[in-house]
Amino acid sequence: xxxxxxxxxxxxxxxxxxxxxxxxxxxxxxxxxxxxxxxxxxxxxxxxxxxxxxxxxxxxxxxxxxxxxxxxxxxxxxxxxxxxxxxxxxxxxxxxxxxxxx
Length: 102
Hints:
Layout: E1 2-3, H1 9-15, H2 25-40, H3 44-49, E2 56-58, E3 61-65, E4 70-77, E5 87-95, E6 99-101
Parallel strand pairs: 1-5
Antiparallel strand pairs: 2-3, 3-4, 4-5, 5-6
C-alpha cells in the first residue's frame, strides 16, 4: 500500500521530531513502525491480522492503536482502475481522539 503525508507527520516520520510536537518518543517510535506496517501490507485484511493495532473505523476516520492511549488517525483513498492500490493519509496522532497533533 502507499502512504502519503499531507501535514507535519511527514517530518515526524522522517526525523523523529517536529516543531511543537510534545508526543513521547516511545509513541513516535510506534508511529514510525505503524507507518512501516502500512507500507508493507497489500490488503486491509493484512492490517487487521495484527490485532495489536485494533484497526477500525471511527466515524469518518480510521484508527490504529499505538498503545492503550495513543492512536494514529488516518484516511484512505480507495483503489480504482487508475490507482490499483489504496493510499493511506495519516492525519493525526491523538490521545483517545481528544488531544490531537498536528
